[in-house]
Design brief:
The protein is mainly β and about 110 residues long. Helices cover about 0% and strands about 50% of the residues. It has no helices and 10 strands. It has strands at about 5, 10, 20-25, 35-40, 45-50, 55-60, 65-70, 75-80, 90-95, 110. The strands form 2 sheets. The chain has a 6-stranded mixed beta sheet with strand order 2-10-9-4-5-6, with no helix packed on it. The chain has a 4-stranded antiparallel beta sheet with strand order 1-3-8-7, with no helix packed on it.
């Protein structure tokens, strides 16, 4: 089973940027499709960005053109570059396989507010 540690969240003003990181261990990372998910208060967690084992990407419409997912297999790490952040991006962000395993990391809080 994979272990996941997310980092890089924080408080940012609207229009700002953040870069999230996810360190994975306990799995053959390079063959896994990975994703970033988010869960806003009182809402379900859902997938916002996907990167395949061959580095193909796909995004939810709500983040397309603003977020970029990438991976560095040598470091077992997945990144999420978030630009032009909006208040509605406020959420706890998690990484996991796609489809996800049952065990999740602690997530990293992103708050977009002036």
């Amino acid at each position: 089973q994979v272990q996941l540690v997310e980092s890089g969240g924080g408080l940012v003003q609207p229009g700002g940027s953040l870069r999230l990181s996810c360190a994975a261990s306990g799995s053959i990372f390079s063959v896994d499709d990975m994703g970033w998910y988010r869960q806003a208060p009182r809402k379900q967690r859902h997938l916002v960005a996907l990167i395949t084992s061959s580095s193909g990407t796909n995004y939810a419409d709500s983040v397309k053109g603003r977020f970029t997912i990438s991976r560095e297999n040598a470091k077992n790490t997945v990144y999420l570059q978030m630009n032009s952040l909006k208040p509605e991006d406020t959420a706890v962000y998690y990484c996991n396989k796609v489809p996800p395993e049952s065990t999740w990391g602690q997530g990293t809080q992103v708050t977009v507010s002036s």
